[in-house]
Amino acid sequence: MSHSPSERTLALAGLFQCVKLVRASATGHSMDDAALQTCLHSLFVFDSDTLEDIYAGTENLQVGLQCLAEQLSGKAERDIEITRMVISLMHLSVKFQKNSRMKQQLHDELQGIQAKLQQFELSSTVISAQLAEVYSHTISTLSPRIMVKGEANLLQQANRINQIRALLLAGIRSAMLWHQLGGSRLQILFGRKKLLHEIEHLSRKY
Predict the structure, then answer these.
(1) Global pTM?
(2) In the CATH scheme, what is the code of domain 5-205?
(3) Rg of the chain over CA atoms, in angstroms?
(4) Which has the closest alpha carbon to 8: 139, 143, 141, 195?
(5) pLDDT tens-place string over residues 97-146
(6) What distances in angstroms separate CA 41 from CA 137, 139, 185, 206, one per listed residue?
(7) Where are the domains of the chain?
(8) Are 174 and 1 in contact (CB under 8 A)?
């Protein structure tokens, strides 16, 4: 896979989209179902050289592109919890990448779940529950564990917890992809203007 700035930005938008949806689920805000399905779809594309395949069309990353732009702009829309979770997922993805046993385990279990997509929708509670279970005994065992803040009564609901964990698993996928495309935290810290320009270009395109 090539390492163009546009591809890196789209992978980063994929990560921010996952985290944005985690925040929406944890706080009871409305969620774009197409954006949700885009995130979860990325978990079941194992061998692909294109972002189009991984995200089922990069035009489905608008929520992530908008969220990334808001976080980079430094304006009132910025959500510190999104930044915190993104950094945590980036850190965990590096740890996960070095754990070959866990990578193989995750791959095998996702292939097992993939067979059930003929019966259930990607965003169904059945698929979310199975993805959440995979997350619990793989990524969740790495430290530091990601703490999700939100409405206490919502975070006690099993279906919502499962959805959040499934999205965090998808976030790891996008974080890994971003690293594989040459992404680094220094690009975010010192290359904000370039990223914002790329986001503007991609948003016009889609």
Answers:
(1) 0.95
(2) 1.10.3890.10
(3) 16
(4) 195
(5) 999 999 999 999 999 999 999 999 999 999 999 999 999 999 999 998 99
(6) 21, 18, 25, 19
(7) 5-205
(8) no
